[in-house]
Amino acid sequence: MSPKDERRIILLLAAVQFVNILDFMLVMPLGPDFARDLGIPLSQLGTIGGAYTLSAAISGFAGAFFLDRFDRRPALALSLLGLAIGTVGGALATGLETLLLARVVAGAFGGPATSVAMSILADVIPAERRGRALGTVMIAFSIASIVGVPVALELAQRGSWHTPFVATGALALIASIASWIVLPSMRTHLAIAQEPALEGFRHLLTRPVTLLSYAMTWVAMMGGFILIPNIASYVQLNLHYPRAQLGLLYGAGGLVSFATTRAIGRLVDRIGSFRVAALGTALIVVVTWIGFVWSPPSMPVMPVFVAFMFASGLRNVSYSTLTSKVPAPEERARFMSLQSMVQHLGSAAGAFLGSQLLAEGADGALLHMDRVAWTAIVLMIATPILMLAVEARVARSERTVAALDAVPAPAASPSDR
Q1: Residue 179 pLDDT
Q2: Using CA atoms, how far apart are residues 150 and 41, in angstroms rounded to an integer?
Q3: Which residues, including other chains, have CB under 8 Å from residue 371's CB and lie 6 or more apart?
Q4: Which of 314, 172, 194, 175 lies closest to 256, judged by CA?
Q5: How far is Cα 231 from Cα 127, in angstroms, rounded to an integer?
């Protein structure tokens, strides 16, 4: 495949990630808008976010058993088409039940879309250039925060809360069509004999380092998503942050993430995942306590939110780098499929727990946000502790491999020659 074709596919996959991430992210800041119109209690917004992630987790796990049996091109195009239908269905919702159904459909197709996109990247890009390509694709998260969410909020201001759902669904449909046009037929993986899925899962899940890594992932995602789905509602209704400036708030947070992600990655390479995660945890605990426990009426929302995003970046880059070192190359795809499931399940558990801890006051403000914040703080502190255990096992494994590689091969005997 020519470099030009590779670049075209990488840009397509970045667009796929942008649409998928935007579809997930826009629901949280739009929550207060559609909650008023549909009569949904603000304390239940976490349930809506959790429905998507739970659905994506289930479909992602199921996809690990059958997605490799199909041509990548139609698999990605169909996943994006389903995502488009589920997202537009959100615009047609008439209440909590129908909105939950739409988000379940979106998650059921959004989860496999990410898995297939990452599989295409691994199929197309050689290992020696894959890191740079993955970095390009992952920038989609920052662009979704900097551009996507603010534009979605502005569309809601100028039109209604339905408009961003329709626009994002249209983008998913365009990405589906582009996938069919840009991608070649990708069937090479179908000819490779693979270990039966159940046997591969058994080998993977009998190693303590794998189980520790998944526990770390669960706790990290749960600690974030018990809080994140409720931030937009809280800053508007409890802290009286202007709705018109919400897009600027998310844009600033995304810009900080975009500007610091590579520097954080270099810091992780230099001093290790645990130390960077410990630094990020210390900062995010302080910011969470200031913003959601102490929460003085005159608190400057923008600096606190930006600090929260920066601290989250420290933790996320550290944990992602560490998990990438856990699996052996031949089991990496299977490991990542299960990790995606654990990520979504942890996010869903956090979102559902947050909705159970919260209540809505007579004035519309959220009650018991301090309970949510303290629970998040406990989970945040547990994350680097688990990371330390995982990092120690990974380092021990790397030393063992290095020692084995250093042992010279026995000289061939004359008969061997």
Answers
A1: 93
A2: 24
A3: 357
A4: 314
A5: 39
Tell me the pLDDT tens digit for each residue of 341-378: 888 888 888 988 998 999 988 888 899 999 999 999 99
Domains of the chain: 1-185 (1.20.1250.20), 196-396 (1.20.1250.20)
- Is 169 within 8 Å of 87 (Cβ atoms)? yes
Q: Hey, what are 129's tokens?
A: 């250039």
Beta bridge partners of 359: 367
> Rounded to 5, what percent of the chain is helix, strand, coil?
85, 0, 15
Structure token digits, residue 203:
């080998």
Asked if residue 383 lies in contact with residue 220, where contact means CB atoms within 8 angstroms, the answer is: yes
Question: Could you give the CA distance from residue 124 to residue 115 in angstroms, rounded to a whole number?
Answer: 14
Tokens representing 83?
Answer: 């995502």
What's the average pLDDT block by block, 10 residues per block, for the chain (417 residues)?
A: 82 90 88 90 85 87 72 90 96 94 94 80 67 65 79 91 96 95 77 62 86 94 90 90 88 83 79 92 97 90 93 85 75 72 86 89 89 97 96 88 65 45
Q: Kindly report the backbone phi and psi dihedral angles of residue 411, in degrees, each rounded to the nearest multiple of 5, phi listed first.
A: -65, 145
Global pTM value: 0.77
Residues 6+ apart with CB under 8 A from 243: 32, 157, 236
Tokens of 214: 């998944």
CA 212 to chain centre: 19
pLDDT digits (tens, 9 = 90+) for 226-256: 998 889 889 998 999 998 898 889 888 888 8
Residue pair 378/227 in contact by the 8 Å Cβ criterion:
no
